[in-house]
Amino acid sequence: MNRRHFLRTLALTSGLAIPFGRQAWAYSTSGSGNDQPHGRTPRLVVIMLRGAVDGLSIVAPHGDPDYARARPNIALAPPGAEDGLLDLDGHFGLHPALSPLFPLWQQGKLAFVHASGSPDPTRSHFDAQDYLESGTPGRKSTPDGWLNRLAALLPGEPSPMRAIGLGPVLPRILSGSAPATNLAFAAGKNKPELLDRPAVATAFDQLYRRDDRLGRAYAEGRETRKEILAAGSEQEMRMADNGAPLPNGFPAEAAHLARLMRGNDSIRLAFVALGGWDTHANQGKARGQLANRLAPLGQGLAELASRLGPLFDDTAIVVMSEFGRTVRENGNGGTDHGHGNVMWLLGGSLAGGRVLGEWPGLHPSRLYEGRDLAVTTDYRNVLGEVLRSHLRVQETAAANVFPGAPGGSNALRGMFRA
């Protein structure tokens, strides 16, 4: 990267808290390609929800009678009811916390692929995330990530800014021989609170004990914190997040990402990971833990689409998670590790306003291993269609990005307008 390019990039990234050290510029130095000085340049943003988000709450099948039966306490109300779903097509509804995205659905710039996911049966966060990022389910020996392999195929001058990641370290999906850059993700750090230290907590307990009004508020806050920490749930969630921050600061980060992409023509691929989706307890319905995570995610995606401006027409955004959650709620008002999930697609050239894929139904006889939504669409088929139809990657080259992937699905053809 030449001096002028570096200074321009540094100016654009002000406010992203980029450290100068081992984690500041994590990139490799090989790659090849040719410039594309003319014509529109397609781009891809991948957002990974670490922790296994509940796709059956994001795009809920309110038209399936087994949905409400399996979730007597956490099933979302049908469209038209108080705190009800936003109706998509009469059968599926969008979680009301994602209402900022509904205009994109109405404009045909948002779509979903339900019952999608990895064919690998693992319910381990770490293995499933690794397979999702390597693009080779069931194979742990893959040395690089699929987004890095894709970066090596794209035309244009090799540059560390061709593929960027926002987060604490260079993610698995961007590791490999092609140039890639990691920029620190400033918002939503998911770290233990100061009051989680026993000595500090004891000192504050003694301090607030002297004031009835403040002491009561302090005690209530501490009690709420204990409920969240109950049964080690937060510890497990942090592990499932794999270092990814909560989505609370995502709207601001999305605005920064849009500014980067609009100001730097060399950026073709971007990756963001967000945590906090491992909802084993107190998942909630239209309100509660999951809704509190979905609200800033929806706001951030809408912000990204808006701030990209005309560039949104040339950008595809994919949102995915390592696997879904159980169809039936558990005894703690949450859901456990499942199988099938829902993938999100956003973009100005998307032929959206549709829920794609083959819906297997939630009848007990149709569930995977008797408990989970079945996977009827391999996630690599969805991404492969994005590569072919949006990024204009040739079929043979796409096969190198996802080696061993099944043939393309006819149900996904025409996802993007020509």
UniProtKB/TrEMBL annotation:
A Pfam family recorded for this sequence: DUF1501
Entry-linked InterPro entries: DUF1501
Superkingdom as given in the UniProt entry: Bacteria
Record region (Disordered): 120-144
Protein name from the UniProt record: DUF1501 domain-containing protein
Species this chain originates from: Noviherbaspirillum galbum
